[in-house]
Amino acid sequence: MTSSTIINYARSLRDLMEYHHAEADAITARDILAFLAEREKSIGKSTLNTLCCALKYFFGKVLGDPDRILAKINGF
Question: pTM for the full model?
Answer without folding.
Answer: 0.85
